[in-house]
Amino acid sequence: MTEGQPAGHCLRCCWIGTHIGRAVGMDAEELGDLYYTLLLKDLGCSSNAARICELYLSDDIGFKRDFKTVDGSLSAALRFVFARTGLESGLTERIRAIVNILRNGGEISRELIETRCHRGADIAAKLGFSKRVQNGIRSLDERWDGSGKPDRLAADAIPRAANIALLAQVADVFAWEQGREAAITEITARSGVWFDPELVEAFVAVQQDEEFWTAMVGDDLAEAVYSMDPANREVDGDEDYLDDVASAFADVVDAKSPFTANHSSRVMFYADMIAEELDLAPDHRRWLRRAALLHDIGKLAVSNQILDKPGKLDDQEWQSVRSHPWHSERILERVSAFADIAPIAGAHHERLDGEGYPYRLRGDEIVLEVRILTVADVFDALAAERPYRAAMPVARALAILRQGIGAAFDGDCVEALARGLVRLGTPEGEGEVAA
């Protein structure tokens, strides 16, 4: 979502890359690490979204999607920047942005890639993946001739999984946009420049099997990828590990915008505070904390040009924002460990009076867990800084929640939050919550 690629991009990269790995003789352990490097290569992509919008005055999702089809030359990159920077901005602002990019382009590019790759590696570590997976993600944009970023690694200094992942990424992007012949041409043209020539030879060999391409566009690709040996290895995962997974993906979401930094963690904190005041059982509270951490994962589908906009949203932008709970539910329902929280995340913008979104639920159709999450989410939105206003004092935020009791919010949940804040040592008349 954050890279703007068609659905299944990382699955297709995994299909391409694992075939290459087998062709060059990787052993089972290496193939396992390659498999997860390919599936998780874009873990850090949300972290540079806001910066791209700021620098290029452009929709980050569309910008990143289209930039991947540039042929890799400096002249092509410059043409792309001129064509895409600040199209909806004033002339002076656009010129200023382009001049800044031309003067500092190398450093800007290194900064964006370093942020993304290091963030992705850190999240992979939090999820418990091996050092080889972490390094594969961290070095995704290194090139065989040493011209890549962020560390200008060259040749065998580049983790093999990283170079395979980059090759698979380029192959999928060009195959999807321009067809298989374009993908083959682009990969072979970058042999010895972006890619290890041995990996290019392996790709050219494996792609000659018609089934290789047929499976990539087939309805059964996910089943084929998830039936590979690495996916069938059992890994011990207890409740603590599931908490870590939820926390890691909350980091992915919150990294997308400076205005949502730690939002998911704070919503979890407030939701748990309300749940404690309402005497929910410990296991129930733990389940709700995961829902709170993951409730906004659908925001990855929304451009930062919209999320961080300081002014009023137009109808199309508002429609995009309103789609994020639906995306949250669709993502979570695909993960067996989190499928039971998917409806909670999908309903966190519903209102008791039926005027919420995306399903216009009302009254008893909205379960207690959603009511708790809604109050926690809105309170944090009010009490934290936003691009269009400063943070509100606690008393003002609570007053707004109380005004909405019965229409938008459950009164028991609002008052439970108020009691919890007092117990925390934040009386209603004081300014901010130290959470």
Molecular structure report:
The protein has helices spanning about 10-25, 30-40, 50-55, 60-65, 75-85, 90-125, 130-140, 160-180, 180-190, 195-205, 210-215, 220-225, 240-255, 265-275, 280-295, 305, 315-320, 325-330, 340-345, 370-385, 395-405, 410-425. With about 425 residues, the protein is an all-alpha fold. The protein folds into 2 domains: about 10-230, Orthogonal Bundle (Hypothetical protein af1432); about 240-425, Orthogonal Bundle (Hypothetical protein af1432). The model is unreliable at about 430-435 (pLDDT under 50).
Kindly summarize this structure in a few lines:
The chain is mostly helical. The chain has helices at about 10-25, 30-40, 50-55, 60-65, 75-85, 90-125, 130-140, 160-180, 180-190, 195-205, 210-215, 220-225, 240-255, 265-275, 280-295, 305, 315-320, 325-330, 340-345, 370-385, 395-405, 410-425. The protein folds into two domains: about 10-230, Hypothetical protein af1432 (Orthogonal Bundle); about 240-425, Hypothetical protein af1432 (Orthogonal Bundle).
| Number of separate domains | 2
Helix percent band: 55-70%
How is the main sheet built? none
Order of helices and strands: HHHHHHHHHHHHHHHHHHHHHH
CATH topology of the largest domain, by name, is Hypothetical protein af1432
Secondary structure category: mainly alpha
